[in-house]
Every structure is written in structure tokens, then in C-alpha cells.
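Good day; I would like, with your permission, to put a structural problem before you. A protein sequence and the C-alpha cells that stand for its backbone fold form the material at issue. Thank you for your consideration; the sequence and its C-alpha cells are set out here:
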Amino acid sequence: MTPNKIGITGGIGSGKSVVSVIFHTLGIPVYNCDEESKRLTVSHPVIREHLVHLVGPDVYQDNTLNKPYLANYLFASAQHVQQVNGIIHPVLKDDFRQWAAKQASPIVAMESAILFEAKFEDVVDQILMVYAPLEVRIARAMQRDHATREAIESRIRQQMDDEEKRVRSHFVIVNDGKTPVIPQVLDFINMLSEK
């Protein structure tokens, strides 16, 4: 039986990871796109070959990714980001499909901050957005990443606007620090079970 595939998304500091932990606690496997893309960027031969061709042989050193070297390339232009994403995202998408097919659970999830930007919506059945007010997100991300407000705001501007994500998602969980999250997750899972 093919599992019901859920995409968990939301802006920086929205609490996607909190929702993923709740899913995991309920026995629902979660594929973390951020972690898996890091793994694949180092280990996948197609990604390695294309990155070396695009960026140069110094992008890998001693069989590990030369992050500062790649970062310099990425920060040089938005086109460079698109080129690198064009190498990594198709492999990540395929890896998720293979991973999902191996799971015994009737529901699996993918956590991705850039689910829409990476065009991952075609590999999931439902999109669950975790929403928090902008000021709450900024405060959380500053504390979590030990970053300045300016750095967090810059990262937020690089992602799709939360209001657009809300419109394009099937279900929204509010994580504003006041509204309990667990009952909302349970409501969502119960809704899936009824379909």
C-alpha cells in the first residue's frame, strides 16, 4: 500500500521541527529535507559530479563538502543558487520517493522549509503549513541560531511569503506560542484517517 505523503512546511522559526517531532512521537516517519540534502550532497555521485563541473574541484576536500567555497559561489548570485538547487533538488525528490516506498507506516512526512520553492508539492499528497506571526518567528530564529535580526530578516526575504504558503497549503497549524499545537496535529491526522 502506498503511504499518504504529507509535506510539512513553514517559514524560518515557525516550528516545523516541533510538528515533525510530534509526528515522529506518533510513529509517523519524517524525512528531513535539510538533513538529507546535506547527506546526499556529500555522498551522491551525480550531485558530486555536477557540483564539481559547475563550481570546480575545490568544492570537495578530503571527501567532504567545502562549505565556505560553495557558500561563496552561492552568495555571488541568485542564478548560482538556482543552478545548485537544480542539481540537488531532483536527487532529493527521488530519494524521498524511494524512502517513502520503503516505510511500513500508512502516513509518512517530508519536512521542508522550501517545499514550494523546490517544487516538492508534486511528491506529497497533502501540504501542512506551520504558521507563526512574523515577530514570533524572528525572535525564535534569533535565539535558536544566535543570529542578528538583520540576518534572520534577510533569510526570510529569500523564502516565499508566508501568506502565499498559507493559500497553497491544504491545512494550517498555528504555532504562535499561545495556541496548543498537539491538538491541531491530532485533528490533522484524524482528518487524514477519515479520507
Q: What stands out?
A: The beta strands are 4-9, 30-32, 60-61, 64-65, 107-111, 126-131, 171-174. Residues 35-102 form one domain. The chain has two domains: 1-29+105-195, 35-102. The longest strand covers residues 4-9.
